[in-house]
Amino acid sequence: MFCPFSAAGATADDASGRPAQRVTNVVLDATACVSYCAVEPVSSAGSPSSLGPSAAGFLSRMKIWSSEHEFGHPWDTVIKAAMRKYPNPMNPSVVGVDVLDRKLDNQGRLHSHRLLSTEWGLPSIVKAILGTNRTVTYIKEHSVVDPVEKKMVLSSTNITLTNIVSVDERLVYTPHPDNPEKTLLTQEAIITVKGVSLSSYLESLMASTISSNARKGREALEWVINELTLTRDNMKTAIAAASVEDC
Questions:
Q1: Known InterPro entries for this protein (predicted)?
Q2: Within 13 Å of residue 131, how many CA atoms lie on the same side as its CB?
């Protein structure tokens, strides 16, 4: 695994005049599929900035979480479930879903923009650290379904508390390369905590929450697939019964 922020290692100042950033202290945990990236300001000469830890405006910490999962269902089945994922009993934290826009482009790909209302359920200590009592947060989500290439890409990011923490998530659904009757899900989340105390604690907490929600999300898809299958079977049974009565 690599840190996608390695490009931030450029030493020249960026267009805004702020010091460029350099990724340091990258530690890979192959078991958990997690990498930790502590980001500190660097001067244009490439050496660590002398601004020190008091320069909270420039200091942020990043954590990258990623995973892979195989569904024992064809791609079409999984995508139908993904489009009908909410509401479900596994993700009660998602308390609202609004479709803002949905359209087909000239290549036949379906683009969807949604706004999700979620209940983070933050512990009291975290609320104190963040300086907020807000519990409901909003997430913007954009997905693209390509039926020709058989690929769905879903990207989401929070639009609440962005001055403190950002969570950028990307999910990709594709047919399994070795078995078309299976679907491969690759998932990555980038957590950025900005200028708050106990940032490493918040990173770990957010990563743990994302990991738990990802597991629940996969369980939710299986639940939706099962519900769709039951509905289809019930419809077949009802149609068959009606045909017998007509005879």
A1: PRELI/MSF1_dom, Slowmo/Ups
A2: 7
Q: What is the pLDDT of residues 63-97, one digit of tens each?
A: 889 999 999 999 999 999 999 999 999 999 899 99
CA distances from 36 to 3, 50, 191 (A): 9, 23, 10
Structure token pair of residue 22: 């350099």
d(CA 100, CA 119): 20
Cα distance between residue 122 and residue 130, in whole Å? 10
Residue 219 near residue 89 (C-beta atoms within 8 A): no
Q: Which residues pair with 233 in a beta bridge?
A: none
DSSP conformation class of 74: -
Which sign does the torsion angle of CA 170, 63, 97, 138 carry?
A: negative
**Enclosing H/E stretch for 75:** helix 75-83
Specify whether the CB–CB gap between 136 and 95 falls below 8 A.
yes
221 near 81, Cβ under 8 Å? yes
- The highest-confidence range among 10-19, 211-220, 233-242, by mean pLDDT, is 211-220
Between residues 127 and 227, which one has the greater pLDDT?
A: 227
Other beta carbons within 10 Å of 220: 21
pLDDT in tens, 119-131: 876 667 666 766 7
